[in-house]
């Protein structure tokens, strides 16, 4: 089965280089090119590629915005971002928009070919080291550390129970206090930390470790 690929990059030299190399690979066919996101959307409608190699920063419409539009379409192609930016924020935005992978332009060609094949089959692909950074929670800020220290020992204890998914009743039983007391502590914790609900409190607490 031949995988139809659309190249999207605002630098023509990059597109030509990729096209020349990928066309030599059995099972891959370069069906078209685009130099910005709006053109990519039009080319996808006209050419129906299986996989789109998408740059991030482009004029007119960037790759993340184009990915978001394409991912919402019926029979959307798989989108593999190929960029120079080793940036967790950009990668997160692209993946949340619907990209199936995020690779850097210095990826060896054999690995790029394999990534195209894998995203076509439904697998995700990330640049080496990027997956670990994306999965590692951010370290607590100094402001958060001070805020945590400002809670009473009992409030800190209850916050840790919330982070473990315990209900008010379970916390009350564990700490030998009433549910009403737990509710009062939870209200105080949320107020002091500027959080909206227990879910935010749980995520906040998990960053302290």
Number of helices: 11
Mean pLDDT comes to 88
Kindly, what is the distance between the CA atoms of the first and last residues, rounded to a whole number of angstroms?
Answer: 48 Å
Main sheet characteristics: 6 strands, parallel
Strand content: 5-15%
Specify the structural class.
alpha/beta
Helix percentage: 40-55%
Strand order of the largest sheet: 2-1-3-4-5-6
How does this model look, in words?
This protein is α/β, with parallel strands linked by helices and 209 residues long. It has two domains: 3-135, Rossmann fold (3-Layer(aba) Sandwich); 142-206, Winged helix-like DNA-binding domain superfamily/Winged helix DNA-binding domain (Arc Repressor Mutant, subunit A, Orthogonal Bundle). Helices cover 53% and strands 14% of the residues. It has a six-stranded parallel sheet with strand order 2-1-3-4-5-6, with helices on both faces. Helix 3 (63-71) links the parallel strand 3 and strand 4 (78-83). 30% of the residues are buried. The mean pLDDT is 88.
Which descriptors apply to this entry?
14% strand, 2 domains, 11 helices, elongated, 209 residues, Rossmann fold, alpha/beta, 6-stranded parallel sheet, Arc Repressor Mutant, subunit A
List the helices and strands and how they pair.
Elements: E1 3-8, H1 12-22, E2 28-34, H2 37-47, E3 51-54, H3 63-71, E4 78-83, H4 88-97, E5 101-104, H5 109-120, E6 125-126, H6 130-135, H7 142-149, H8 153-163, H9 168-175, H10 179-193, H11 198-206
Parallel strand pairs: 1-2, 1-3, 3-4, 4-5, 5-6
Helix pairs in contact: 2-3, 3-4, 8-10, 8-11, 9-10
């Amino acid at each position: 089965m031949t995988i139809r690929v659309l190249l999207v990059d605002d630098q023509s030299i990059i597109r030509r280089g990729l096209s020349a190399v990928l066309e030599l690979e059995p099972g891959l066919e370069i069906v078209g090119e685009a130099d910005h996101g709006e053109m990519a959307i039009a080319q996808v409608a006209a050419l129906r590629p299986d996989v789109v190699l998408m740059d991030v920063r482009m004029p007119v419409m960037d790759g993340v915005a184009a990915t978001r539009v394409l991912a919402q379409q019926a029979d959307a192609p798989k989108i593999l971002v190929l960029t120079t930016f080793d940036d967790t924020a950009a990668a997160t935005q692209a993946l949340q928009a619907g990209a199936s992978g995020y690779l850097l332009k210095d990826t060896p060609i054999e690995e790029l070919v394999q990534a195209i094949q894998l995203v076509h089959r439904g697998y995700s692909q990330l640049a080496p080291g990027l997956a670990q950074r994306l999965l590692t929670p951010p370290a607590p800020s100094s402001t958060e550390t001070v805020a945590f220290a400002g809670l009473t020992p009992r409030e800190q204890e209850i916050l840790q129970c919330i982070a473990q998914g315990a209900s008010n009743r379970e916390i009350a039983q564990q700490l030998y206090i009433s549910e009403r007391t737990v509710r009062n502590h939870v209200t105080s914790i949320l107020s002091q930390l500027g959080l909206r609900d227990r879910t935010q409190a749980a995520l906040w607490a998990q960053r302290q470790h």
